[in-house]
Specification:
The protein is mainly α. About 60% of the residues lie in helices and about 0% in strands. The chain is built from six helices and no strands. Helix 1 runs antiparallel to helix 2. The chain is elongated and about 60 Å long. The N and C termini lie far apart (about 45 Å). The mean pLDDT is about 85.
Length: about 140
């Protein structure tokens, strides 16, 4: 039902051309259905928005498929990292009601692993066995 999604996002962009998330979603969907009619024009606008600091939730993985400069890729990745950190910092009191004692075991390093795929998706199933092997 990608065609229906394209229609909905097209209408959203028509109603609110400044809505970055709708615009980037529309560009992504047009690529998925191989609609290249305004490819150059879309990516001129994509690059302009990224240069203005507007990434609209565009993820670094999807951005790899776009004709972006290294600086623009860094901007997209940086925006995503800032968003993730804001979410983590907001949830920190719920996740860690205590302050971790980083000096308790100086002979070991602490490793944190973060992914949106640690659920019943293949990546989550794959890493479950890896986590069991970690020397705690």
């Amino acid at each position: 039902r990608l065609d229906l999604s394209v229609k909905c996002f097209s209408k959203a962009v028509e109603l609110r051309p400044d809505h970055d998330a709708a615009f980037f979603s529309l560009v992504h969907l047009l690529g998925r259905i191989c609609d290249w009619r305004d490819y150059e024009g879309q990516f001129v606008r994509v690059r302009e928005r990224i240069d203005q600091g507007q990434t609209g939730g565009l993820g670094p993985i999807f951005a790899l498929a776009y004709p972006l400069t290294a600086e623009q890729m860094c901007a997209v990745a940086g925006a995503r990292a800032h968003g993730v950190m804001a979410t983590v910092n907001a949830a920190r009191p719920l996740l860690f009601p205590w302050e971790p004692d980083f000096g308790a075991r100086p002979d070991k390093i602490s490793v944190a692993v973060l992914s949106a795929d640690f659920n019943s998706r293949p990546v989550g199933q794959l890493v479950q066995s890896v986590f069991k092997l970690i020397d705690k």
